[in-house]
Structure formats: structure tokens, C-alpha cells
Amino acid sequence: MAIRINAAARAAQGAARRARTRERLLEAAMEVIATNRGDTTIDLVVEAAGVSRGTFYNYFPTLEDLTHAVADHLAEDARQDLGVRLAHVWDPAAQLAASAHYFLRRTRREPVWAWAALSVNEMRDRDFPSVNRVFMSLHRRGVAAGLFAPRDPVAAHVITAGALRAAQRQVLADDPPFEFDMEVIGMLLQALGVPAELAAAISRETATAAETIEPSAASAGAL
Length: 223
What we know:
The protein is mainly alpha-helical. It has helices at 2-36, 42-49, 53-59, 63-85, 92-109, 111-124, 129-144, 153-174, 178-191, 196-210, 217-222.
């Protein structure tokens, strides 16, 4: 019995150690990607993480595999954070606006996180699948509720994702006042078919809640 218990304890310790090493690699990769963008290399990541190349390959066969893992890590972190913040927001237009404000506020407070998200998106040459699914669901509900115009959802997603990425870059470059966020998100809602006055009101109301956003525990520890 004691032998069996000791083996189980050692297995649990090994699993925890592997999880910590994987997390260290992901955290290092986020910082390296945020700094180097498309010039990120395995050597830069292992140096930042303080591990060997052999250790790296035990977790990620290629740099592309690491990039996908970082993307999943960023998306899951944001999904959990937003899930808490949007738990009591039912209107799809307000959910979309609140999510957009969240990303722009977090961009201001966590530029490394923002650069990592932007750069990973470019390195993978595609958007985060989980984010795409959330947008499509919101767009479908918004059209059904008569809030959004019944237009091509893929085109709507292209406009929305492109506008938010451009806004993120503007925030990172110039740190414009918060009114910039409200204008961008109000105009984005208009592009989706929300009347101008209502779009401005939704953006203003959801911006107020976004002002209380603090760095998440995961990102604060990582970055």
C-alpha cells in the first residue's frame, strides 16, 4: 500500500512540475512574441524561460505549436475574464460593446498582453477560433433581436476584428483618451446596423463598467 501511495505522490509531483515548466514557457513566449513579433525564435524563448532546447521540445515540437498554445492561453484567459464580467449582460449589442471596451482597456493597462495577442494573430495568419465563435453567436442573436442589420456575418466579423485591432494599435502607439474607445465602439455598432444614437448610448454605458477592469490574476502573474 505504501509503495502504491508513494508512486501516486511522485506521479502527481511530476505532473505539477511539468505543468509549471509548460506555464513558464508560455509566459516567456508571450513576452518574447510581444517584443520580437514575427522575429520570435525558439532560442529567444528558451533563453527567456531559462530552459534548454531539449526541454522546449518535450513540450512543443515546433515554434508553430508554441504559437498555437500561446493563442489558446490568451483566448482562454480572456474568455474566463469576460465570462465573469458579462454574466449579467444579456443584450447582444451591449455584450459586444462591453467585450470591445474590455480589450481596449486591457490594452492600455497590459501592453505586453496586447502586443502578444496582436502578434500571435499575425504569426498564425488567422483569428482566434473561440473569439470567432463568440462573435458569430452574438451577431446571430443581434440580428434575431433586430439590433443588427441582417448582413453577411463573415463580413461583419472582418469589419469588427479589423477595427478592434486597428484601435488596439492606436491605443498602444498614442494612448488616446478614453473618449476614443467610446467613439470607435459606437461607430462599430453603427456599422453593424445599430442606430447612431442608440450605438453611442450603448458604448457610453458599457464603457463605464470597463473603467473598473484590473489586470487578471493570470496575466498579472505572467506578464
